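Let us practice reading a record.
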Amino acid sequence: MNLRAATAALALGLATLHATPAQAANILPNPGFESGLSGWTCTAGAQAVASPVHGGAAALRATPQGGDLARCGRQVSVRPSSSYTLSAWVQGGYVFLGATGTGGADPQTWGSPGAAWTQLRTTFTTGPSATDDVGVTRYEVSRDGGSPVAVTGTSHRATGLSADTTYRFKVRACDAAGNCSAYSPEASGTTAAAGNGGDGGLPEPVLVGYLHASFANGSGYVKMGEVPEECAMRDDLTLLHVQDYNSGPIMGLDGQYHTMGGHDFHVAMTDMLLAGFPIMGDAANVFPPLRQDQVAIGLPASVNAGNGYTTVTEVQKAFGCLATGTGCGTYRPRGVYPGLRGLMAWSINWDRHNGYEFSRNHRAYLDGLT
């Protein structure tokens, strides 16, 4: 079973979650965060603090930013067909408390207590399928009643789908001993028709090649100060690949300048699109974040293609940091973006000239992420 807590600051700009100190019947390890975040899995916007606290010596402070919802969670072993109470002392603009993988109705509750400490409390009963004290270790997804596919996380990307086709999915939770819950009710979805301008004809993640026949395209230039606060076309964008090359240093959301040619530059530039950014530094004029599936990273296919060429290793380090949250350098993105759409090469011509280094290496890498 997975406990989860998420906060979203509204009035105060931060929110604090504090679990009660350990008691005789408390099965939650490190509930008061006196051992820091040990045992907890948290997003980048969370930290253990000594003040403010409700009791004990520490608390969890979590500040959401952009796509980072400031969520912390941990896995706890429970008994089947047993009742539990989950509670926490909280303060802040918005606090969510809940659990998943209980084998029954997953509980959730939330509050908006402001500066006053308030106790959130919810009860639940675990399902009957497990026969031991082992917690959920995986989920299994079945498509169209077929053999299940094991999933270690809480999301699953189906591959090998046909265009304009309806598929049915159901999921169940299993523990390390092989005990599985009953399947959930089926959910269905239909893929887009091929060639209709949607996602039906594009793999996920996608590798795009730019074919140039002439540079006289009359595209011109747009200053960032001219970007409107709300882009009228943002919801209609299928794929936006930003030119991460032929550029001077650019300031990221961390207030630092980043230079092209290394993984940090691509992480910082992509993070701005996915988390949103103040236009020309104006906090009152913010470019809202794009969806992850709308964004791809654009970069030269070879050293001859333009300034800002990035080695295969550095490109994949950047993509891994953004899509999985691992292998990051000095710049830490505001969230993890598993739906980041892919890479764009300038250009097919230069990639061919360079022995297809870009397409061969990155296509294999992206395929390995699905």
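A brief commentary: The chain has three domains: 2-125, 136-190, 206-369.
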